[in-house]
Design a protein that fits this description.
By secondary structure, the chain is of the alpha/beta class. It is 28% helix and 25% strand. Helix 1 runs parallel beside helix 2, helix 1 crosses helix 6 and helix 4 runs parallel beside helix 5. The radius of gyration is 24 Å and the shape is globular.
Length: 539
């Protein structure tokens, strides 16, 4: 029998997780469905200094703390993409790629994604110099000039963050002044490595494999000027021009305004009974962490009152929810070992993880230590270590072109097509564990339609996914392609930590991640769905 939740929260940003904390504390049986890693936009914010009661923290740290709080109150988390919803009845239905979930109430907290400006060259040079996440890509521009486009909170804050790497940061703002709080604006204006050009807009960016120039215009005087990268080098452009609300899946189910936001009343209620919206998905004056948290708390409190009435009407009795064990981020400490062991206990068959090491590369020692510790967590995992050239047959089977590497084999000795170049720490520990889980079973549930698309690839194809361990978008791309590789022997998927393999980074002029290289020829940037990734196999 399908489980009926009291509350489903779609989205695990600050609003969604706060709603989860309040709902769990009220003993509501709550499920949070998350597309990405928890945290939403705040998880890519380097510094959080304006949240009451917290002097200083990072967005990633705050996000993980919120998740731990929610789990301590019994809230369940599930990683999936919502395909459609049905809010027409008293039982709300949420359909994802791996099944349908039901609840008495739903909170939509899907937030918004960075908006593109649309200037010539923006799409062409995305990932080749133009980025939208300073935390993910800032390090690639060490010692270079960087332009920040925008005048809001993100532009001011991230311009300061980028000074850690850039030689100089120039803020391009079409407004006459910053539109964020004065304290944040003053930090940018006072920074010795930041120059701010107000009343200015970008009109073009261009180059060859990477950015070489950009053109700007003063929107008051009409005077235009051009920047050229010095000494035949390159530079960076980061766009912070607002966000696009993620509401497409709810069209026809709840009212959506002309800008794509979901209107609510002061209690976060939409025009549909039992459906609420919280955070950046709502039209609002201030889009900040503190307002998202407020929205989430109000939405959960309103939903609780509604759920009580519906339960009385339908004759549903309250049941005590089980508290999940707390989530603690600390790589391979006792708590992480416990969590990994719980996942690895579910493995159905044995697997062999083979590391082909390079004695001339110090990364080999890190890989060996990582695998030795990881394999000790399950008797179904064997770690084997080879030196480059020691077993040519094994290397040929893996089609190894970059050393050192980690490859996953089945208990029958079949290569799964999955490799990791680098230590899969940071956010990539998730993709590594998922690869093991999919290779040894039971694996992720996928629809027959998805499997058919994976198997529709009829020719050999190699995907190399350039990542950084701080990138929050990369694990989804890595996991999707590695799942495809495990299901289809014609597909290979290799994760490459570009910070550890500069030759790979420079060969493809990678200045943004995730970067997907197909058959060592064509390169594509940005997060893509599995279906979009599979279409690249035929290009």
């Amino acid at each position: 029998m399908k489980e009926l939740y009291d509350l489903i929260i779609i989205g695990s940003g600050s609003a969604g997780m706060t709603a989860g904390i309040y709902a769990g504390r009220s003993k509501l049986n709550t499920l949070i469905i998350e597309r990405d890693l928890p945290g939403g936009q705040i998880k890519i914010t380097s510094e959080v200094e304006n949240y009451p009661g917290i002097l200083h923290t990072s967005g990633a740290e705050l996000s993980l703390t919120m998740k731990r709080q929610a789990e301590n109150f019994g809230v369940k988390f599930h990683n999936a993409v919502v395909e459609s919803v049905d809010f027409s009845g008293e039982i709300k239905k949420v359909k994802t790629v791996d099944g349908e979930y039901e609840a008495l109430a739903v909170i939509i907290a899907t937030g918004a994604v960075p908006r593109k400006i649309g200037f010539p060259g923006e799409e062409e040079f995305r990932g080749r110099g133009i980025g939208y996440c300073a935390t993910c890509d800032g390090e690639f521009f060490s010692g270079m000039d960087v332009f920040v486009i925008g005048a809001g909170f993100a532009a001011a804050e991230e311009s300061v963050f980028l000074t850690r790497y850039a030689r100089k940061v120039t803020v391009i703002a079409r407004e006459t002044e910053f539109t964020c709080s004065k304290s944040i604006a003053d930090r940018a204006l006072a920074h010795p490595k930041i120059e701010v050009k107000f009343n200015t807009e970008i009109i073009e960016a261009g180059g060859d494999k990477v950015l070489r120039y950009a053109k700007f215009v003063n929107n008051k005087t009409g005077q235009s000027w051009r920047y050229d990268a010095p000494d035949g080098g390159t530079f960076g452009i980061f766009v912070f021009a607002g966000y696009v609300p993620q509401s497409a899946e709810y069209s026809g189910q709840v009212r959506i305004d002309e800008q794509g936001y979901i209107p609510t009343d002061e209690n976060m209620r939409t025009n549909v009974d039992g459906v609420y919206a919280a955070g950046d998905i709502r039209p609002k004056l201030l889009r900040q962490l503190v307002t998202a948290v407020s929205d989430g708390a109000i939405a959960a409190t309103s939903a609780e009152k509604y759920i009580v009435k519906v339960k009385e009407k339908l004759g549903i009795k309250n049941e005590e929810t089980e508290k999940s064990p707390p989530y603690i981020e600390s790589f391979f400490d006792d708590e992480m070992r416990r969590q990994l062991s719980a996942v690895l206990e579910k493995l159905e068959t044995k697997i062999e993880i083979v590391a082909v090491l390079d004695k001339d590369n110090p990364l080999s020692a890190e890989i060996k230590g990582f695998l030795s510790e990881f394999s000790s967590l399950s008797d179904k995992i064997t770690a084997s270590f080879l030196q480059k050239g020691e077993n040519p047959e094994k290397e040929a089977k893996m089609n190894v072109s970059i050393f050192p590497t980690i490859g996953i084999f089945t208990e029958n000795g079949d290569y799964t097509g999955v490799q990791f170049h680098g230590v899969p720490g940071g956010h990539e520990i998730n993709s590594f564990v998922l690869a093991v889980y999919n290779a040894a079973g039971p694996g992720q549930k996928i629809t027959a339609e998805t499997l058919e698309k994976i198997l529709s690839v009829k020719q050999k194809v190699n995907f190399k996914i350039g990542v950084s361990l701080s990138c929050t978008l990369c694990p989804d791309v890595v996991s999707a392609l590695q799942l495809a590789a495990i299901k289809n022997p014609l597909i290979e998927a290799e994760m490459i930590d570009v910070t550890k393999f500069p030759d790979f980074k420079n060969k493809y002029s990678i200045l943004s991640v995730p970067a997907v290289v197909v058959n060592d020829e064509k390169i594509y940037f940005g997060k893509k769905s599995l279906e979009e990734l599979l279409t690249l196999a035929g290009k």
